[in-house]
């Protein structure tokens, strides 16, 4: 066992094995679903000994938390990119909503793991609201679009509203009943953008001075 662990230590630089295990876990989630995920399965997928994951994760729940954290970070990157590419503050908020839905659609197992982990803890993870998180970008985009930064409660409510609206669209956008509309509108992304345009928090356009 010691020899096997030494081989793994040589194979991965410090810290790389943990990431390799998380990536292996994501592949299993996407291809086989959460029921197939275990530390033994992740070890096999990563090509390491069955004992290796226990040097980084105490159990399956710990591994799932690490996978979820990576998902929240990637969502933050997607949201930040969408916001930065918008021509104005109103489009920035809509771009964020579209990016959120696209992320959920492109990473279904990861997205479900993120929210399953949050539900298990009855809270969004702390890192989901850090400085460069998707949540903070929504909040800042709302301020850019006219929200009063001094009204903390209203700003938090607006952020929750925008987040929940995008989450709801992500949950329903795949329904087959919507396919004719998607075709008529030129694809799913155009459909999502149009749907968000009918949601209050996304449909409000700021005045010229930047305030509602």
Series of H and E elements = HHHHHHHHHHH
User: DSSP helix count?
Assistant: 11
Q: What's the total count of β strands? A: 0
- The global form is globular
Determine the strand fraction and express it as a percent band: under 5%
CATH topology tier name of the largest domain: Tetracycline Repressor, domain 2
> Poorly predicted ranges (pLDDT <50, ≥5 residues)?
1-10, 206-212
Identify the CATH class of the largest domain: Mainly Alpha
CA-based gyration radius = 20 Å
Which class of secondary structure composition applies to the elements? Answer: mainly alpha
Please describe what this structure looks like.
The protein is built from eleven helices and no strands. By secondary structure, it is mainly α. The protein folds into two domains: 2-57, Orthogonal Bundle (Arc Repressor Mutant, subunit A), CATH 1.10.10.60; 67-203, Tetracycline Repressor, domain 2. Helix 2 (16-32) packs across helix 4 (60-84) and helix 5 (89-106) crosses helix 8. It is globular and about 55 Å long.
């Amino acid at each position: 066992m010691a020899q096997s662990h030494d081989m793994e230590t040589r194979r991965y630089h410090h810290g790389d094995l943990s990431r390799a295990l998380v990536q292996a876990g994501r592949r299993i989630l996407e291809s086989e679903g959460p029921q197939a995920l275990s530390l033994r399965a992740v070890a096999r997928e990563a090509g390491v000994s069955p004992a290796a994951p226990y040097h980084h994760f105490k159990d399956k729940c710990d591994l799932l938390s690490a996978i979820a954290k990576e998902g929240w970070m990637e969502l933050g990157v997607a949201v930040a990119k969408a916001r930065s590419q918008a021509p104005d503050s109103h489009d920035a908020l809509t771009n964020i909503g579209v990016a959120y839905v696209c992320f959920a659609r492109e990473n279904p197992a990861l997205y479900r793991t993120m929210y399953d982990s949050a539900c298990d803890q009855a809270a969004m993870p702390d890192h989901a609201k850090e400085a460069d998180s998707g949540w903070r970008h929504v909040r800042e985009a709302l301020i850019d679009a006219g929200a009063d930064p001094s009204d903390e409660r209203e700003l938090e409510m607006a952020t929750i509203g925008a987040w929940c609206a995008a989450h709801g669209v992500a949950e329903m956008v795949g329904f087959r009943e919507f396919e004719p509309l998607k075709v008529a509108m030129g694809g799913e992304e155009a459909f999502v953008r149009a749907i968000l345009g009918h949601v209050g928090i996304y449909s409000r356009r700021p005045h010229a001075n930047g305030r509602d």
